[in-house]
Specification:
single chain; alpha/beta; D-Maltodextrin-Binding Protein, domain 2; 5-stranded mixed β-sheet; 8 helices; globular
C-alpha cells in the first residue's frame, strides 16, 4: 500500500487515470509491518553506527537493494541515507527474491524488507540483522534492536495494509465496514497470526486511517523529492 497510495501520489502525480487519494475513502488501517535492515555476512559491521561509519570510509562501495523503485524498502533506505549521510548506492531488483539471493551471495551489502521475508535467513546464519525501522521491537523479530537501539536515528519505515473503498460509498456504510474490519483484525486468532509475521494489527476508524494515509503521503513525498526518485 505504501507504493499504491502514498508514494504513487508523488511518483505519478498527474499521470494516473484516477486520484490516488480523492477517488477512495479510507475504511481501516489493518496492520503495519516495520521493515528490517540486514547486511551480508562479509560486511564488517554489527550495528547501525558501525554501518554508517563504514559507508563513509568506503565511499561508493556499499550498495543497498530493494524490490523496486518506489517500494517501501527503497524509500526507507533513502530516508536512512538522507538522515545519516551514509554513502550507499541503490540497486533496484524485480522483487525481493533476487535481491536476497545477491545479499546472501555477497554481491549486495544491504537489504531492507519485512521480517517475515528476512528473519528465516537471519536465524539460519546466512545474513545479519542490523536493526528494525521502528520505535519498538517487532513481534516475530524481538531479538533485533530498533534503529535507535542500534546507534542510529529514530526513523520509521514500514509496509502496511489499509482498507479503502470508493469515495462515493455512504459514510454510514463506511463506518459499518470499519467496525467489522476492526473486530476481525483484533480477533485473538488473527492477532497471533500477524505477530508471527512481524505485523502489528491495528483496526482503526476511517478518520484515523485517513490521517495515517495523509501523513504517509507527506512523509514519503519529502523523501522522494530530496532523493530525486523517478518512477520506472
Amino acid at each position: 500500500m505504501i507504493g499504491a497510495h502514498a508514494a504513487n501520489a508523488t511518483l505519478y502525480a498527474g499521470r494516473l487515470p484516477y486520484d490516488p487519494v480523492k477517488s477512495f475513502a479510507p475504511v481501516s488501517l489493518v496492520g503495519i509491518a516495520p521493515l528490517l535492515m540486514t547486511v551480508n555476512n562479509n560486511l564488517p559491521v554489527n550495528n547501525v553506527k558501525e554501518l554508517v561509519a563504514y559507508t563513509k570510509a568506503n565511499p561508493g562501495k556499499v550498495s543497498f537493494g530493494s524490490s523496486g523503485v518506489g517500494a517501501a524498502a527503497h524509500l526507507t533506505q533513502e530516508l536512512f541515507k538522507q538522515v545519516t549521510q551514509a554513502d550507499i548506492v541503490h540497486v533496484p531488483y524485480k522483487g525481493t527474491a533476487p535481491a536476497l539471493s545477491d545479499l546472501m551471495g555477497g554481491n549486495l551489502q544491504i537489504l531492507t524488507d519485512t521480517p517475515s521475508a528476512l528473519m528465516p535467513h537471519v536465524r539460519s546464519g546466512k545474513i545479519k540483522a542490523i536493526a528494525v525501522f521502528a520505535n519498538k521491537r517487532v513481534p516475530g523479530a524481538t531479538e533485533v534492536p530498533t534503529i535507535s537501539e542500534a546507534g542510529g536515528p529514530a526513523i520509521e519505515g514500514s509496509t502496511w495494509v489499509l482498507f479503502l473503498t470508493q469515495s462515493a460509498v455512504p459514510k454510514d456504510i463506511v463506518n459499518r465496514m470499519s467496525a467489522e474490519a476492526a473486530k476481525a483484525i483484533n480477533s485473538p486468532e488473527l492477532r497471533t497470526k500477524f505477530e508471527t509475521l512481524g505485523i502489528e494489527s491495528v483496526g482503526s476508524s476511517p478518520e484515523q486511517a485517513g490521517k495515517f494515509l495523509d501523513d504517509e503521503i507527506v512523509k514519503w513525498a519529502r523523501v522522494i523529492s530530496a532523493a530525486g526518485v523517478k518512477a520506472e
